[in-house]
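re: ur question from earlier - yeah i can do the single chain one, its not a big deal. heres the input i used so u can compare w yours
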Amino acid sequence: MKILVCISNVPDTTTKIKLSGDQKAVDMNGVQWVINPWDELALTRALELKEKSGGMIEKISVITVGDKMVEPTLRKALAVGADDAVRIDSLPSDDFQVAAQIAAYLKENNYDLILAGIDSADYNGSAVGGMLAEFLEIPSVSSVSNIELEGDDLIMKRAVDGGSETLKIALPVVAVVQKGIALDPRIPAMRGIMMARKKPLVVVPEIASDLNSEFISFELPPAKPPVKMLDSENIADLFRLLHEEAKVL
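and the output i got, formated as tokens:
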């Protein structure tokens, strides 16, 4: 059994976002890049499954779409424990293009379980996992909060309105994972960092693919108004402000 984890290279969640002068792009100068948190948890769960699979899971790979700038992020995934990495040499432009690039690679390289985070911390598209399954014409399961191996069976738990459901899934399948898939991401140890330098990082050329969307402009959210201090006994003014200004009542 082979597992592929799709990872995104995203700005650290503490990054203060700046826009270009014409507001048609995000200014990436000085940005610290990390593995998308949802994808990092997906990788953590894949590693946990491999460790207790008794050899059933032979390899865990990671894949991303991007230029040479994303390679440190892939190396971090290798340091955490992935066996090899794939970089598709294409600048990611929209969800459709990213899914098409990964699908083209998977049509030539078979994997049994493909994991993708439910969202990315930059554009929050929530679309690549589902699109990837459609390109590959294989089943997908969304909102997956747990994955277990029981013999030769793959058992998934997913969130639904008012509760959860448990599914037994035939392979291959795309699992779009969310909160609960793993508790904490793994931190690379020094030994893992040294070993990552020797692990394969394959670069494959992009394919021609369509773009279904285009970013016209960006704008930052409006600045928060200054804090208003009220006397603890002034309940009337508190209700008035909540109603007239905060619009929550």
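The chain has a mean pLDDT of 90. not sure if urs matches, ping me
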